[in-house]
Amino acid sequence: MKKRVGIIGLTAILGFFGMSVMASEQETAGITEASYREVLEQVTSRIRWAGTEGEQQAAEEIAQQMEGYGYEVTRQSFPFTEEARGKQNSAYATNVIAVKKADTDPNGDILIVSAHHDTKQSTTGAVDNASGTAMVLELARVMKDVDSDTEIRFVSFSAEEEGMKGSAYYVASLTEEEKERIVGDIQIDMIGHYLVDSVGIKTAMGQEELLAQLLEEASLEVTGSAWERMKSSASDHASFTYGGLPAVLVEQNGDGAENHRYSDRAGIVDAKKAVEAGAVVEKVIRRIASQETPSLSSEAHAMSAGDAYVTVTDRVPILFGASKEDVELKFGATGVLEREEPLEGTDLTTEYYAVQAKWFDWERPLRTEFVYMRTAKIYTTLMEVYIHTEPLGLSDEELAASLTASLGEPDVEDYGTIWGGEEMKDNLALRMYEISAKDEEQVIHVYGALHSTMGNDLKAFDFAKDTQEYADQCSAMELAMLETIHKVIPQEDPYVKQIISWTDGYSYILGTCTADDPTVSDSFSVRIDGYDFFDNEGNILDTGRMLATMVHEYGHALTLNAGQLNADMLSRSMNYNDISLYREDSYMKAFYDRFYSGDKQRSYADYPEDYVDQYAGESGMFEDIAESFMVFVTSSRPEDDSAAGAKVSFFYEYPELLEIRNYIRGNFGYPQDQA
């Protein structure tokens, strides 16, 4: 007979990571904002890039903490890269698996509750993903003394930021017997951002999941409104889905401008929001653990297995020419390796992966084949995609009619009939289709559209004009883009002259800022790919991501204009990293003197902590200052002594830039007291 679950206790801990764990003698309590905040701040005490000392220390401290709770802990080391680089001292990373055994049936259900503890190179990753790691630790703490007829595994993955390598390795390590017993994985990744109010229940392919149903019910009970169901494959839950196991992601709806940047620090996590999300997950864990709840593994498997496919829309990118990891992340699914064909006399191998995908308006998912070319060491490019259409039972003529109904009239060329066209404005998905045959079977050959230029200008707008003057001349998306950019760039700015609705298709480049005449640099055009930030009704898809792009591009106009540059040098050099281009009193010269002159500049590979993010570190000084300006606008004033923090603090020396910062922050609901 299971004991009744009463008020759950929490062991009193003096000092968290790296300190001794005291015996549990004091009465304990559930997750509170204070207890969560304490754990969060300890997790964010260091950068945890996979393969570095910081990640290794974090994994060990998480393992010790779980052992302090009385769990059986495994440190699972795995290779995640071909070779260590820069700060990395190892090509291996570590998953931590803490197991709470079932009190009754040792062969009963298994529930996995997970997060990832690794970060990108330049950040201590508070929201992404100390927020989830801290919550998994807190959930493990409050559940440690609760009777359960379900085995609960609290897992902290590494190398999620390297292509979900840790979770993929863990799933591959599971036995068939374990897989049959698994109810599913609840991955917690990115919760509690102070400006993001909603949480989503996300599945990798948009499929139905039993855990999603339970979380939806629990969210309604805990918060008063049900969390939204969504689709996302951008976290470790996807590894379980790809491995044929039930899985869901609990994640806030929006990244925030700090994502993967130095500014993703503990202060941007609202503990109240995070604890509320954790309370929903805890309610589901307790329900599954209860002896009153029957075994759920069979039902969970049956439910998730029925809908294991990707629905392909125009907004689902297929990144031809990209790495396998990038393709899978954007597309929303990995494939099953069907065969390999080495190319004789070379170190190249063609690999064929199959994915179930639903295309166009067709009711049934079809086997879709992704063809990669691989070198001896790494995946290099996605070469081709084939949709196997035999199950539709259509003749070539009938299939052609169906494609025409979905995509419009084809282009008939000497080399074949092609649907999709090459005009960017008509082909934002950047792919074309041709009916063909492969292995004597009817297929649609899908390949990337080729364009003669990098994106297309769609419509230009005079920045000096009021947005409403264009209300009858542009789409809802373009109108929203104009209204938003005016909230970033003050109307009186003397250099920005045009806002251009521009696109290179979904994903890829998000925006640019260029001098209309680089030899004069007295006027600028800001191009924004509105399709990446707004839906057709003009609703913002991700405020943080959009704001980061727009502020960065405005940073170029502020630092590369005629008032900052030596006019007599402009005709000699267009290299914006050439410090001789800039006036003595320019922002760039001061930035150079502070951070680049002499031996002050250090490589991003070896010193990522000197830069606010990877783009700033790998793209040269003029991108570094623009990206640092963006972080200055979208984050609070740094309190540490890092070089990245110093670059952000640099802009506080200029009252005119502080005024711009306050203008932008006020327009987007950022607190004004963080200056």
Topology:
Elements: H1 33-43, H2 53-68, E1 72-79, E2 92-100, E3 110-116, H3 126-143, E4 151-157, H4 165-173, H5 176-181, E5 182-188, E6 199-203, H6 210-223, E7 228-231, H7 237-242, E8 247-252, H8 271-289, H9 297-305, E9 310-311, H10 324-331, E10 336-342, E11 349-358, E12 366-374, E13 379-388, H11 396-407, E14 411-413, E15 416-418, E16 431-438, E17 441-448, E18 456-462, H12 476-488, E19 496-503, E20 511-515, E21 524-528, H13 543-559, H14 567-570, H15 587-595, H16 614-618, H17 621-634, H18 643-649, H19 655-667
Parallel strand pairs: 3-4, 3-5, 5-8, 6-7, 9-11, 19-21
Antiparallel strand pairs: 1-2, 2-4, 6-8, 10-11, 11-12, 12-13, 13-17, 14-15, 16-17, 18-19, 20-21
In short:
With 675 residues, the chain is of the alpha/beta class.
Can you describe this structure?
The protein has 19 helices and 21 strands. It has 675 residues and is of the alpha/beta class. Helix 1 crosses helix 8 (271-289), helix 13 (543-559) packs across helix 17 and helix 17 packs across helix 18 (643-649). The longest helix is centred in the middle third of the chain and has 19 residues, at 271-289.
